[in-house]
Write a structure and sequence with these properties.
disordered C terminus; single chain; mainly alpha
């Protein structure tokens, strides 16, 4: 549970961010006008791209369970857990999604919370490492990216001899590949958003921008890292070279699209859960009627 200090800090950051958005939009009405002119097709397309992250997260959950040596969940249950935990991850404090998954798997399938926690750390290490590598590569620091990758491989080789779960090579490779696809997909989403408000944005800039956006999740004191992500993106303007107006407009668009995505995810989860219940009832044998 979050402490009162963390809760107060989260509320303060959200209030400051909302206030900053309002002040900026009043000072720059052209940004709001630009958002009002956003094509509905663009919003639908971005929502569709965000929905593509769901099967990726479901595959990552499968890889996590493989690392734990646990039994796999049925596809429907996996998708439901992925959907609900994604919603909790946004609205809950300090990235609540992994905690929701860990508690559910412990209660329903007796999965060790310690093992699942370690497996989740492996995923976040991949996510953080790949995000940092994309920032370095996009910023022209290829040598540092290679050096960091080599260092990570050495550390991984040492840990692999110590931790049994890291010896499950197939699960590790799947998790790494799927995480890389996730990072690429997020870069594409941000590229589409940035280009919609500033056509001069390059994919290289979007890759660096996405890297910082991903890293902001590791300091997520607020829902969806609200304020944390925007602050980090504004502070790192000299690396991704995306100006303040574009960052603010693209961030507003992204927040709006993400809320739509979560709404679709929530409705889809409810429908899938209702379908599972109907199927379960239909398959329950009825008692034979006496003559």
């Amino acid at each position: 549970m979050p402490t009162p200090l963390k809760r107060s800090l989260a509320i303060l950051i959200i209030a400051a961010t909302v206030g900053g958005f309002i002040f900026y939009l009043r000072s720059n009405p052209a940004v709001l006008g630009q958002l009002k002119n956003t094509s509905p097709l663009l919003v639908v397309g971005l929502t569709g791209l965000y929905l593509l992250t769901v099967p990726l997260l479901a595959l990552i959950l499968r890889a996590n369970l493989n690392l734990c040596g646990s039994k796999q969940l049925p596809i429907g249950e996996n998708l439901l857990l992925t959907g609900y935990s994604a919603i909790a991850n946004f609205f809950g404090p300090l990235q609540s999604g992994p905690g929701v998954r860990a508690v559910y798997l412990k209660q329903k399938h007796s999965v060790s919370m310690k093992q699942f926690g370690l497996a989740s750390l492996v995923y976040y290490a991949f996510l953080g490492g790949l995000s940092l590598a994309t920032i370095l590569l996009a910023g022209g620091y290829g040598v540092l990216a290679l050096a960091g990758t080599a260092t990570a491989l050495v550390i991984f080789a040492v840990l692999r001899t110590k931790l049994a779960m890291l010896r499950r090579t197939r699960a590790m490779v799947i998790m790494l590949v799927v995480t890389a696809v996730q990072v690429l997909l997020m870069a594409i989403i941000y590229f589409v958003e940035l280009r919609s408000v500033n056509p001069a944005t390059t994919f290289q800039q979007a890759v660096a921008y996405a890297g910082f956006a991903n890293l902001s999740l590791f300091a997520s004191l607020t829902p969806g890292a609200l304020g944390i992500r925007e602050g980090l993106l504004l502070l790192t303007e000299q690396i991704h070279h995306i100006n303040q107006a574009t960052v603010v407009a693209a961030s507003l668009l992204d927040r709006a699209v993400y809320i739509i995505y979560l709404s679709v995810l929530f409705i889809g989860s409810l429908l899938l859960q209702a379908q599972d219940r109907l199927v379960s009832k239909a398959t329950v044998p009825t008692k034979p009627q006496l003559p």
